[in-house]
């Protein structure tokens, strides 16, 4: 590139580059780079001029060279494929005619804040310091697959993709970060993506911040983040997700915070976080998920999810959590387990009971265990349900032992009154002990106790049928009580 071929605008950039000085072409600090197509020659710079500067990198002794321009109209394609650029590149509020080509390039720093681009091709890019695309408007795909950024990636306020397409979930993903490595943080609060955000296999050393983001891929996958590894937290408070959020196999040691977020994927899965290992999962103050949720085989230390947030279809087979918040009565938590797509899952009830025990709420844990057995009863053959129903009604499967005492007292009262009013005749006159209606009734009901009353007296008429009823119900109560208590002790 000959310096004599430069336009006045290009000469300003050329002269400022060796000293790292800035060139501001803007007419107003608040102008929109999306209007750059109409900018005149006074602020137009050819991409070939920028490439010549960056590749040759002229410098002045004692000065740090660098590209620092604002509000430029860059025509042509900025092709830096495989280039090693030592000077930092800062192009703020610029308009690009073609998508820059940075495939395999090595850069010191790249700043494109508030710029307008038709896309960015930068797979396997290496950036030593930082990549900033804050408040950018990028209509085409941003290809950063396999990129390595030693510092942070900044996308806050950016708008990626083209809205209003017939199926935003079917187009090429506007943001592609699969298998990228980010040394510190991904700051993307307020980000809007019309289409899929793909970060499969990516590794982020710090946090991912998607607060107030809008991920819009109706009918598709809004966030595809399988096997994502995050160093601290993934924040997505107040996020709007239209399409599936897929975090399968992710590792997040801190918080996965979806507080106040909105998930919309009717007819499909709204949130899939199966086979994940996460410290804390927060879905506080969220609307009910519009779509299913899949948390199978995941491990959480804390799951904060109110009952009203659970959707109509859930999959929680193998889900493990130590603490469930907020702490609520078991009766409010149990209906969610009945929505399991696979049907009755004993483990889901055992896990919920374990969480209540961890919180020191033994009464709630027993309520969950009782609900588990009642649900199991409905899966048994009809003849087996009868025995289960007897155990439930009498002693609550061993979790309500006072019920048996209540039944026994009621029967004792009935028998004592009936036989007190009409004492049975003695079998052997003159040899029978004095009749006692209370102990006679106890003799009938409790087969392991004998006071000599039953063998000495014989009722007649309907009193004889009452004695048969007391004997049968006594045996049933004794047997079901023993079976229920034994089962309860085994669980302990």
Span of the ends, CA to CA:
83 Å
Unreliably modeled segments: none
Mean pLDDT score: 89
Radius of gyration: 37 Å
Shape: rod-shaped
List how many beta strands DSSP finds: 37
The largest sheet has its strands arranged as 1-3-5-8-12-16-20-24-27-29-31-33-35
Give helix % range.
25-40%
Assign the structural class, choosing from mainly alpha, mainly beta, alpha/beta, alpha+beta, or little secondary structure.
Answer: alpha/beta
Number of helices: 9
Share of β-strand residues? 25-35%
Q: Biggest sheet, in brief? A: 13 strands, parallel
Q: Please, could you describe this protein's structure?
A:
There is one protein chain. With 492 residues, the protein is an alpha/beta fold. It has a 13-stranded parallel β-sheet with strand order 1-3-5-8-12-16-20-24-27-29-31-33-35. Strands 9, 10, 13, 14, 17, 18, 21, 22, 25, 28, 30, 32 and 34 form a 13-stranded parallel β-sheet that branches. The termini are far apart. It is built from 9 helices and 37 strands. The longest helix has 30 residues, at 462-491. Helix 5 packs antiparallel against helix 6 (382-395).
In terms of topology, how is this protein built?
Elements: H1 8-16, E1 23-24, E2 44-46, H2 47-56, E3 67-70, E4 73-75, E5 89-92, E6 95-96, E7 106-107, E8 110-111, E9 116-117, E10 120-121, E11 126-127, E12 131-132, E13 137-138, E14 142-143, E15 148-149, E16 153-154, E17 159-160, E18 175-176, E19 181-182, E20 186-187, E21 192-194, E22 197-198, E23 203-204, E24 208-209, E25 214-224, E26 229-230, E27 234-235, E28 240-246, E29 251-257, E30 262-272, E31 277-282, E32 290-294, E33 299-304, E34 314-315, E35 320-325, H3 330-337, H4 346-358, H5 362-377, H6 382-395, H7 402-421, E36 425-426, H8 437-445, E37 457-458, H9 462-491
Parallel strand pairs: 1-3, 2-4, 3-5, 4-6, 5-8, 7-11, 8-12, 9-13, 10-14, 11-15, 12-16, 13-17, 14-18, 15-19, 16-20, 17-21, 18-22, 19-23, 20-24, 21-25, 22-25, 23-26, 24-27, 25-28, 27-29, 28-30, 29-31, 30-32, 31-33, 32-34, 33-35
Antiparallel strand pairs: 36-37
């Amino acid at each position: 590139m000959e310096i004599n071929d430069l336009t006045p605008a290009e000469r300003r950039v050329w002269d400022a580059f060796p000293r790292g000085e800035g060139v501001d072409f803007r007419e107003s600090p608040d102008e929109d780079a999306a209007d750059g197509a109409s900018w005149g020659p006074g602020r137009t710079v050819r991409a070939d001029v920028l490439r010549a500067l960056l590749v040759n990198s002229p410098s002045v002794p004692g000065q740090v060279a660098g590209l620092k321009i604002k509000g430029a109209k860059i025509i042509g394609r900025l092709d830096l494929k495989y280039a090693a650029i030592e000077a930092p590149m800062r192009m703020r509020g610029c308009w690009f005619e073609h998508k820059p080509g940075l495939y395999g390039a090595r850069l010191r720093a790249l700043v494109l804040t508030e710029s307008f681009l038709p896309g960015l091709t930068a797979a396997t890019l290496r950036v030593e310091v930082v990549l900033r695309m804050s408040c950018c408007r990028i209509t085409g795909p941003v290809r950063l697959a396999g990129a390595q950024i030693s510092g942070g990636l900044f996308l806050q306020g950016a708008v990626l993709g083209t809205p209003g397409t017939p199926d935003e979930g079917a187009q090429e993903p506007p943001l592609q970060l699969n298998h990228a490595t980010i040394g510190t943080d991904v700051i993307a609060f307020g980000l809007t993506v019309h289409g899929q955000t793909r970060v499969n296999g990516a590794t982020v050393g710090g946090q991912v911040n998607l607060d107030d983001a809008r991920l819009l891929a109706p009918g598709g996958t809004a966030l595809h983040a399988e096997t994502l590894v995050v160093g601290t937290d993934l924040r997505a408070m107040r996020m709007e997700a239209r399409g599936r959020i897929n975090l399968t196999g992710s590792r997040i040691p801190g918080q996965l915070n979806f507080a106040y977020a909105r998930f919309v994927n009717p007819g499909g899965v709204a949130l899939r976080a199966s086979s994940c290992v996460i410290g804390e999962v927060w879905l506080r103050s969220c609307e009910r998920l519009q779509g299913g949720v899949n948390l199978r085989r995941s491990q959480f230390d804390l799951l904060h999810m109110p009952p009203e947030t659970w959707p109509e279809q859930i999959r929680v087979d193998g889900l493990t959590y130590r603490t469930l918040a907020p702490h609520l009565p078991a009766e409010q938590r149990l209906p969610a387990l009945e929505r399991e797509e696979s049907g009755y899952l004993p483990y889901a009830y055992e896990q919920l009971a374990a969480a209540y025990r961890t919180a020191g709420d033994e009464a709630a844990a027993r309520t969950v265990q009782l609900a588990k057995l009642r649900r199991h009863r409905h899966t048994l053959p009809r003849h087996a349900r009868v025995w289960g129903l007897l155990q439930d009604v009498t002693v609550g499967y061993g979790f309500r032992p006072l019920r048996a005492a209540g039944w026994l007292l009621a029967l004792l009262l009935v028998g004592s009154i009936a036989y007190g009013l009409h004492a049975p005749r003695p079998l052997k006159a003159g040899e029978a002990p004095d009749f006692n209606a209370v102990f006679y009734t106890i003799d009938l009901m409790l087969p392991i106790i004998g006071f000599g009353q039953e063998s000495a007296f014989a009722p007649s008429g309907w009193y004889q049928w009452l004695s048969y009823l007391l004997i049968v119900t006594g045996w049933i109560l004794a047997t079901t009580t023993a079976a229920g208590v034994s089962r309860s002790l085994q669980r302990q």
